[in-house]
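User: Some background: our group keeps a shared notebook of sequences we're curious about, and every so often someone picks one and asks for a predicted structure to add to the entry. Today it's my turn. The entry only has the sequence so far, pasted here. Could you supply the structure so I can complete it?
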Amino acid sequence: MEVMEWVERTLGKDEVMVRVACCGICGTDQHIYHGHPGSAEVEPPIVLGHELAGVVEAVGEPVTALQPGDRVSVDPNMYCGSCEYCRGGRAHLCDRLQAVGVTRDGGMGEMCVVPAANCYKLPDHVSLMEGAMVEPLGCVLHGYKKLDLRPNQHVLIAGGGFIGQLFLQLVKAAGVSHITVSEPNSHKREALLALGAHAVVSPFDTEEAAGLLDSADVVIECVGRPESVELAVAAARKGGQVLLFGVASPDASASFSPYEIFSKELRIMGSFINPYTHEEAIALIAQGIVRIEPLISHCFHLNDLPDVMATYPELNVTKAVVVHK
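Assistant: Of course. Here's the predicted structure to add to the notebook entry:
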């Protein structure tokens, strides 16, 4: 990755140009950086960044719903509308999925051209940094909606990073009786308890990990590693739900007993991107149900990005954003 002057795209029909104010660095950006696919196949060179918000700089023809000066959050995903998945109401599984920051230039640049239909106006009291985080919250919301949550349940969240902290706030708001977070980094413990966890345990502590077995009605896996997936299945009690949300490496595999899934009658689900969840995610932030800014651990500038992306695993990041000057 390098910083350079880039040729600005001219505005096409139904497009707008956004002056980017803030762009999140997602785990998927790291996957792409290391040569793996994102939500779709990537053909470099590409400007990364699919979690973005900014101010409309210019509008193309015949856009009338937006005008220069509007503060917007961008949903990066574009669907073909004609494949069997789009026509069947599952557009996020589109056979010809395109995405800002994945298949076309994204938010790690000063300007970004996006479809007007993918822009959502932000309320005045929602910051542009919060606006950039609408996309990951929308992804979390899509997974959250798959769960059947009830007041008497024990929910286990595997992974106390940014995504786990978003899930934690939603699950807390649902009013379940007990929330445990499995997180090996002891420095995150106080923050997780403050966000609503009833207990924080380390999966590397033999005794604490053993206490998770067959304990949870709902397990939300937010890490994407084989050991955390295996823990998720083992921690689910009879009749439990397991949501595999963490993005695993394409060549990763996990081992667990099919008999265990059969005998416990587990429901195991995946969750992919954020189909039309942007408006609800903005509302959750606007109403204070989900807090964003306390979760941001690092802010960088464009010139920092080559070094940041090269050394990202060493930086102890909970959530990082690129703030444009």
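Suggested note for the entry: The chain is about 25% helix and 25% strand. The longest strand covers residues 15-25.
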